[in-house]
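Exercise (ungraded).
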Amino acid sequence: MILEVKDLRVEFPTRHGTLVAVQGISFAIAPGEVLGVVGESGAGKSLTGMAVIGLLEPPGRIAAGEIRLDGERIDNLPQEALRRIRGRRIGAIFQDPLTSLNPLYTVGEQLVETIRTHLDNDASEARARALALLREVGIPAPEARIDHYPHQFSGGMRQRVVIALAVCAEPQLIIADEPTTALDVSIQAQIIQLLKKLARERGTAVMLITHDMGVIAETADRVAVMYAGRIAEIGPVREVVRAARHPYTAGLMGSIPKIRDATQKKHAPLVQIEGAMPRLNAIPPGCAFHPRCTKVLERCKTERPEPRAAGANLTACWLYGPGPA
Amino acid sequence: MAPALLSGAQGPPPLLALENLGRDFDVSKPWLNRVVEGAPRQLLRAVDGVSFEVRRGETLALVGESGCGKSTLARLIVGLYAPSRGRIRFDGVEISGPEAQADTIHLRRRMQMIFQDPYASLNPRWRVREIVAEPILVLGLLKDENQISGRVAELLTQVGLVPEDGEKYPHQFSGGQRQRVSIARALSGQPEFLVCDEPTSALDVSVQAQILNLMSELQARLGLTYLFISHNLAVVSHIADRIGVMYLGRLVEIADAQDLFARPRHPYTRMLLDAVPDLEMSGRRRTPVAGEVPNPLAPPAGCAFHPRCPHANKRCKTELPRLISRDGAATACHAVEENRI
Amino acid sequence: MKFQGIWNDDLAYSFRNSPVAVVAAVLTLVCVGGALLAPWLAPYNPFDAASLDLNSALAPPAWTAQGAASHLLGTDDQGRDILSTIMYGARISLGVGAAAVLFALVLGVTLGLVAGYFGGKLDSFIMRVADVQLSFPSILIALLVDGVARVVLPGDRHDEIAIPVLILAIGISGWVQYARTVRGSTLVEKNKEYVQAARVIGRHPLAIMLRHLLPNVMGPVLVIATIHIATAIITEATLSFLGVGVPPTRPSLGTLISHGNEFLISGVWWIVLFPGLALVTLVLSVNLLGDWLRDALNPKLR
C-alpha cells in the first residue's frame, strides 16, 4: 500500500471550543489504484487531502491518527522533511488551474524548476523531460508551448500542465482536489481519461477528491463517501454506485440527475434527502445522518456506528451492524 | 428572413419569441494602445443570429459550455443588456428591437430572473424579508404593511422556508436556502416567465435535487414558463420540455427533450451527450471528445464547430450552416442537411 | 444603514484582546470628553476677558517652584489658564476636524458611487479631477480654497465665516481618498447578481445606489474616516499655526502652539509644550484606533 491512513482526526481550536472537522478516517490506496473521496460541501474531504499532504492551515491540526506513505509515518514529520516529501513523493492537483501556476514564469521554467529540485538532472535533461511530460499529458506542439506563459493556455490545457507538474518528479501518490470542477464538461472527460492513464502507466496511487459522483464512476477503482467528517461507506466503485448500502449514499445516488432514456416523457421527481448536512459545531449525537435518514432506528439516535463489513463495502450504519436491529 | 422556427401549435402567440438576436461586446484595447501597437478593433460576438420561441407553460432549456453565450442571452431577454441586432417579442409585443414600444415596463414586469451564484445574488446587508418584499414594493402590488408581511411569509413557506427566516440575513443561510430565497424574490413579483441562469450549478447534488423538485412543483402550481439555462444535460433532462443547444453564440440544435436524447442530430449535441458520465456503469463505448472550445474572439470560419467535428467537409469550413427544421427538430449542420449522418 | 454585520462578537473580541486599541480608545475618550465638556469641566473660561487676571500671567505649572495649585499647567502671557485653553482649543480642533471629515466623506462617497455606477465619461472626468488634485499637497489645496474665500467674501465677515471656510478647505482637500475607494468597491459590487436582480425588478439607479450599493461599500470608508480625523486635525493645526486657520478669538490647539512658540526663546516652555502634547496624544490615539479598526474589519486577516 502506498498510502495508509488510520483513524485520522483533524481539529480546529477556536475560541468557542475545539471543532472536530474529520475523525475516524481510515483507508488505504495501492499502487496504480484510484481512490475517490466523495462528499458534499462541508463533509471534510478536502481537509482530509490537505492533512495527507501536510498543508493544513493553522490553527487546524492533526489531532490523532497515523498517515503512512510507503510504510513510513509522515504525519509527525517536521515542516522541512514534509516539504521534501511534497513534490517528490506526493504530487498535488488543485481545482483552479489559474492559481496553481505562477503567472510570471513560463510553463517550461516551472516544470524544469520542479524537476531539478527533486531529481538529479541538469538543465538540458530537465528540459527534455519537461517536453516528454507535456507530450504525455496531451499538449499539442509541446516544443512551441513549453515557452508559453500560463495565461496563453486555455483552461483545459492549463490543467494538463498542472498534471504534468504534479507527476514530473515521479511521485508515488497524487492528491487531486476537484481537478475537473472548473472545466467544461467535454474537457472533464478528457482530463479524467488522462488521470486514469497516468495512474495505470506509472503505478501512481491517486486520491481523487470531488463532489461529482459522475467523475468518480468514470475514474475511480474504489470510493469513500464522506458525511459530516466521517466515512459513511467505502468500497469498490461499482458496489458503491450501483448497490449502495448506506442510506446517505443511496440518497445521494438517487438525487443525481440522469439522462432520461428515450421512452420517458419526463422524469419522476428526483430523490431528495430532506434537510442539510449539519455544520461542524452542530453534529447530532449517534449517527450524524439520523435526522435525515428514512430508515432510522432507535439505536441510530444515540450510538454512533463504526464502519463494518456489508457485502463488499464497509458501511458505518446500524442497518448492517451486529446486535439488535 | 427569420430561419425556420420550431413549429408550435397554432393559437395564442408564444410567450417569448426571439428573432435573429445578436449582441456584440467591444473588447478592443484602449485607443492609445491600438494606435501604438497598430492593433485592430476587437468585437466579441457573444450571441449571433439566435431565434426561437418559448410557449406558455413549457420549460425550454438552453445548454452549452462556457463561451456559448447562454448567460448573455438570458440577460438580453430580461433587459440587462440591449441587443445589438434582432428583436425580442413578449406575448406578441416587441420589447426590444427596431419597432420596440417606448414603454415596455409593464411587460418586463411579467418576467423575472434567478441567478447562479447564491452568495452574490442576495444583498448581504438586507434582511430576507426586505429582499423578498422588494418586487412587491417596487411594482406597487400591495401597499399595506401587514398585507406585505403576510405575503412574504406565504412566499417563504411556498419555497420551503419558514416565515421566521424573514428576519435573518443571507449569511445565516446555506447555499440551497439562499437559492430558495432567490426563488421567493422572483415569485413575489407574480411573474409569468422565469429566466433561470444555472440556478443549481453552484449547489451540492442533494440540494440541487431539492431545488429542481421545488421548481417543478412551483411550475405546475403557478403555471409558470421557464427558460432554464445550464451546462449540465442531465439536470436539464429532469426539467425540460424542449432543449436548445448553443455553441459559440449560435443555436445549433433545438428539439423536444425526448427527441433530443433519443436522436441527437448535431455532432456537438452528440459530443455533449457522450461526455455525460456513465453512472449506470454500463461500460458503454464513447467517441473520444476532441479539442476545446475555440477563442470566441477568433471563431473558426464557416461552421464554428468544424475543427472538432468528425464529419466536417469542405463546405463546413467556409459556409455557416443555417438552422433548418426537419421532423420536428431544427439543426444547424451541413452534414445533417446533406443526410451524411 | 445597518452595522449589524460589523458590530458582532468578533469585533468586540478583537477589541478586548488588543491592548493598544483599548488604550487608544480610552485616550480618545478622555480627549474628546474633555473637549466636549470643556464649558463644564474646565477650571476657568479663558475667553471671558473679565475673568482674566494679568497678575497671574506667565505662571509656570503647579509642580514647579513658582507654580500655584490654582493653575495646574500654568498660564500664558494674558493670564489664561493653560489647561482650560487646551480644553477649549481641543474643542475647536475636534469640531473642525470632524466637520471637515464629514464633508469630505459625503462629497467623496457621492462622487465615488456616481463614478463607479455610471462609468464612461462621467467616471473619467471625476477620476481625472481626483488625479489632478492628488498631485498637490493637501495643505496647498486648503490654502488655495482659503485664499479664494478670503478674496471672494466681504472682509468684515472674515471672523464669522473663517471656521466654515476652514472646514470647506480641509474637506475639499480630502474627498479623493473616499471617492477612489468607493468607486473601486462600487465597480466590484455593481456586477454582482443582487444588483442585477434589482435592475431586473426595475429599480431606479438612484435607489440602487443608495439602498443596495451604499451599505456594501461603506465598510472601508469608516476606517478611512477614522484615520482622516487625525489628519484633518493636523491640517487644521498647521493652517492655524500658519495663521490662516481659525480666527484668533477662537484659538485651536494649533493657534495655541503657534502663540506659545514665541515665548520659547525666553524660557517660557509650558505655553507651547502642553498644547503640543495634547495635540499629539489626540492624533496618535485616533490613529491607533483607526489602525486597529482597519485590521479588525479586514476579512482576510481574521
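Further reading is listed at the end of the chapter. For now, observe: The first strand of chain B starts at residue 16 and ends at 26. The CA atoms of residues 218 and 224 of chain B lie 7 Å apart.
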